[in-house]
């Protein structure tokens, strides 16, 4: 069913509150920067959502739809207590100041901002119109988020190959998608959530640069240079977690810098630790960064009772703040004895996934990718920053020349910035964090990232770009100014969304018409008399809610055609980040069939081995309203997890009777056999009385069978 009006209202209220907070980030409140205060509110609400989602998993609370609106109302009402009492008056003053600052900013800055807004709105509206098409989102990010929201449970689902180790990846970033998917049980608002994360990156980056001493003008330029870089901008609506991790990293740096102030309060310590924990809980590569942040705490100076917080209380607040981000590691420790599973501890023989290690080290891809020489590192840097085909028909996902400019200018500015004694701890934290993250990318164990997946490796370097942009803003000499401004102009043409088909163009124009109507009505009222101007925002909110209510009908109409257009593989006219694999995307008849099945069904999925084993696009099997559940049923006699790299072993140790008995015991309604065909396909084809082909065809490589049960 489409999202209810109540859920749409809750989503709009929450988004409007976040937007209102963002609008006032650059204003000071007495001696406290309102930017830090409102960033604290943002971190607090995010933390609250993560804690509740993790609690639902740990204590098996099930779906959290019933109390979602209450949680958001509580979060907003509690958080707004930190705002000044005359907040409305201040917001009007802020609007006037912003208007004056806009006209003082210069034509060049206004042009870049307007161009960025047009591109961002274009990407947002297109994202609202089309279903998710990012590879990692379809294989595990959104699948985990949807399954966690629907049947939250404390354990891990046994599954083969890449699906098995995806289960153990840190999932705080996916927690946010789980909350968004819970709005009406669908993905209609995912793009809006990604847009809010993207805006948050710019705002927090601006607040951090300004807090460290940059002027507002160059802090704004540095935020624009970061936001427009393809490694950040082009992931806006992809439902990946890289931008989320970057946002948490910048929040952590902001609070670490704030702790140096003599008037720091207990909640600053709590939110510094919480931001570090959230970053580590989103990406395992940020775990050493969180450890580095903890090492900085004694240097920053423990609070005293004069500040209302003793050392022991500060330590307790830090421990509690870290806990939500460490939940995924605690669950791994309890489940398999290794908190970093499926990754391995260096030098320690703990249980880990050998399959994942062989994928990351490129052993699985053959000898042509096994080079780890000095020349290979320079080749990787060339791919990241100077590869000549970054303006081709594919979407640019690497930093490109704009990123190289920011890094070079940032390195050149370090020595000058170091002279500012007050900002040294934060600068050191940023620099050491960059060294840690760069060392992880350049490590021999990540060879595949530099040789096989180099077209998308830029998303792991975004913290380095952020630090480079901030350093440029702190020391705006001729090189820094040139780097920030030129980076914006280089990135602008690379931000245009590629991969348009007639199907998603048709859907986007209807979404544009819906939201354009609300904007036109609001603008018309603002230009009318004073009474009309007073109610213009209320009318805008009402028309926006109406557009959100119509959104599911628009997307449902075009969803099948967009999936069909995306099935062209590398020659597809329709994609988000990059085209889907042709073989995997041609399973779209299965997706459309399950989408039309309104009654909740249980789908057992299986697929043969291909590439690195992450060839199962699982999320579309849930249906557009997430009405189905997806499981994997072991084909082996003992019910253990099978390794599809060795189909002969599955045939030897497997049993068709045992497999079909498990299907019946688990009340499976459909069996999805994805390409390449696994051994189970032979069993299905030799039992036509028990399996009926309902979608797909042998020529498409993937097919869906209905499990026929004998009448009672």
- How is the largest sheet built, in terms of strand order? 4-3-5-7-6
Report the C-alpha radius of gyration, rounded.
26 Å
The count of helical stretches stands at 29
> Low-confidence parts, pLDDT < 50 over ≥5 residues?
1-33, 59-67, 78-87
How many beta strands in the DSSP annotation? 7
β-sheet strand percentage: under 5%
Task: Give the N-terminus to C-terminus distance in angstroms.
Answer: 31 Å
Note the main sheet.
Answer: 5 strands, mixed
Overall pLDDT metric: 80
Class from secondary-structure proportions = mainly alpha
Helix content: 55-70%
Shape: globular
Give the topology, please.
Blueprint: H1 5-23, E1 28-29, E2 32-33, H2 34-58, H3 68-79, H4 87-104, H5 107-129, H6 135-150, H7 161-166, H8 172-181, H9 190-211, H10 216-228, H11 230-233, H12 242-258, H13 266-282, H14 287-300, H15 311-336, H16 354-360, H17 374-385, H18 400-417, H19 424-442, H20 447-451, H21 462-474, H22 478-494, H23 502-526, H24 530-566, H25 582-585, H26 588-596, E3 602-607, E4 629-631, H27 647-653, H28 656-665, E5 670-674, H29 680-685, E6 691-696, E7 703-707
Parallel strand pairs: 3-4, 3-5
Antiparallel strand pairs: 1-2, 5-7, 6-7
Question: Any overview of this molecule?
Answer:
There is one protein chain. The protein has 712 residues and is mainly α. Helices cover 61% and strands 4% of the residues. It has 29 helices and 7 strands. The strands form 2 sheets. Strands 4-3-5-7-6 form a 5-stranded mixed beta sheet. It has a two-stranded antiparallel sheet with strand order 1-2. Strand 1 and strand 2 form a beta hairpin. The relative contact order is 0.10.
